[in-house]
Write a structure and sequence with these properties.
Elements (H helix, E strand, L loop, with lengths): L1 H5 L2 H41 L1
Amino acid sequence: MSAFWADSSGATAVELGIMVAVICVMLISALGALGGNLNGVFTKLSGKMA
């Protein structure tokens, strides 16, 4: 039982999973915030090209 408590590889995997989840949430939030602005830029560009 003491070997089970001494093994920290599971904790490392959980920490890595949490970091990946936080990074994904930040990326999705940033893309969501910039999505409307980028759409407007491309709409202006396509209007000028036409």
